[in-house]
Amino acid sequence: MGAEEHTWSPELEAFHEEIERYYLGPLWAVIQGVITKEPATDAVPYLWKWSVIRERVLRSGELVTPERGGERRVIYLENPGLKAKGIPMAATRTLYAGIQLLLPGEVAPSHRHIQGAIRFILEGEKAYTTVEGEKVYMEKGDFILTPPWTWHDHGHEGTEPMMWMDGLDVPLLDRLKVSFFEPYPEDRHPVKYPPNYSALRYAGGMMRPVGARRGEGGYPSSLILYTWEQTQRALDRLSELEADPCDGYALEYINPNNGESADARIGSWIQKLAPGMHTQAHRHVSSAVYHVKEGRGYTVINGERFDWEAGDFFVVPPWAWHEHVNTGETEAYLFSINDRPVMEKLGLEREEAHPTGWQDVVRVFEPLR
Ligand code: GTQ
Q: Could you tell me if 234 and 333 are in contact, meaning their C-beta atoms sit under 8 angstroms apart?
């Protein structure tokens, strides 16, 4: 787009070069490539097999430790389209997703950063995250929050490798160049509360303990641990009702202080798809990174079929048509992070229903194995 579509006269070409020497730019040559008719996505739809990731993550456990400097032992998802553009640590242009490994006895030292972080627990038990003095034990399917600028470290009291998904708004903040980071002077930040404090306080789901600690404007969330048990119960009740046509039985993790997304910039969802369910296709400006918690099926993204099974990760880029299908005999559960809170706060979110409901499948994605 842009200049390639035009044939400039040699005289005009020379003029472009002449003004560029003064750090001035010719708008007419550039505008179509930047103020595009609709989102011009360079993040591509993509899918990573869990078997590929898991093997590499475990291997990284033999090669590196989560010490100061590197801080965390994580293998992250690199969107091929963004990698080609030299955009670091990006699953989409706003979202980072990684798989973190902690081995028994290890500590990932305490630090804080302005990037918000969420965790979704994949495998293992008896490891914990401490967030501002609250020690949170991690179990499969739990959702854990590390709000921006909160001290956090990870430790492991169990006997098996512990793995979880990290979701952070790293690429967005890198684009804005607004990062702050600080290591805590010691490996561990002092624990101030009983284990799983906030999950116990908010166990009622729709009730807040009297005198709950609340940040300014309700932010950050005073709930840190959202257990799978509560999540499962909420999904089961919800699925007694009618499903959302595009998203199935879908819940967003929220900040109980203000009812907004659990992290102010990272949206986090859990979706349940009943066997045979085939959602309606739609597209929106916000992008998402999905993790298949359980089940088997496929997602059609811009006409390409991405088959998935438990553990896999896939990306839905901005403004990409997508629909989900559960082909298994059991429920499918999809966890995802998205940048919808940012798009909504900036007034940029838009959504469109697919004109015929379902897309024609024109390609089948072949994942690397
Ligand atoms: O656990 O604090 O995947 O700081 C990337 C950066 C995890 C963490 C990541 C981080 C962390």
A: no
Q: Probe ligand 1: pick from 72, 122, 131, max atoms within 8 Å of CB?
A: 72
The structure's pTM equals 0.96
Q: Which residue's alpha carbon is at the smallest distance from atom 6 of ligand 1? A: 72
What distance in angstroms lies between residue 301's CA and the mean position of ligand 1's atoms? 29
From first to last of its 369 residues, what are the pLDDT tens digits of the chain?
Answer: 444 567 899 999 999 999 999 999 999 999 999 999 999 989 999 999 999 999 999 999 999 999 988 999 999 999 999 999 999 999 999 999 999 999 999 999 999 999 999 999 999 999 999 999 999 999 999 999 999 999 999 999 999 999 999 999 999 999 999 999 999 999 999 999 999 999 999 998 888 888 775 666 778 888 999 999 999 999 999 999 999 999 999 999 999 989 999 999 999 999 999 999 999 999 999 999 999 999 999 999 999 999 999 999 999 999 999 999 999 999 999 999 999 999 999 999 999 999 999 999 999 999 999
Among 67, 68, 71, the mutation site with the greatest number of ligand 1 atoms within 8 A of its Cβ is: 71
Amino acid at 191: V
Sign of CA dihedral 2, 354, 271, 311: negative
Q: What are the extents of the domains in the chain?
A: 47-364
Distance CA 295, CA 331 (A): 6
Please state which of the four CATH numbers 2.60.120.10, 2.60.40.420, 3.40.50.620, 2.30.30.280 is assigned to the domain occupying 47-364: 2.60.120.10
Does ligand 1 come within 6 angstroms of the Cβ of 281? no
Distance of CA 233 from the midpoint of ligand 1 (Å): 29
Specify the residue for token string 């950050």. Answer: 220
Q: Whose CA is nearest to atom 1 of ligand 1?
A: 72
Query: Cis (ω within 30 of 0) for the bond into 317?
Result: no
d(C-alpha 158, C-alpha 121), whole Å: 15
Say if ligand 1 is within 6 A of residue 166 CB: yes
